[in-house]
Amino acid sequence: MENFYFYVFVIVAAVVAFLIVKKVVGCLMKSILLLVIAAALAVVYFLYFS
What we know:
With 50 residues, the chain is mostly helical. Helix content is 94%, strand content 0%. It has one helix and no strands. The relative contact order is 0.07. The mean pLDDT is 88.
């Protein structure tokens, strides 16, 4: 019965780790997308308005 609790703990820990990684990657992707848009706007500004 001791092994059963160990496997349940491992499965729960894997699910929690997956959810945390998913949330961090989502936030990271939003940040990268924002930086790309800001860089594109800066390039357009300097190429066409200067």
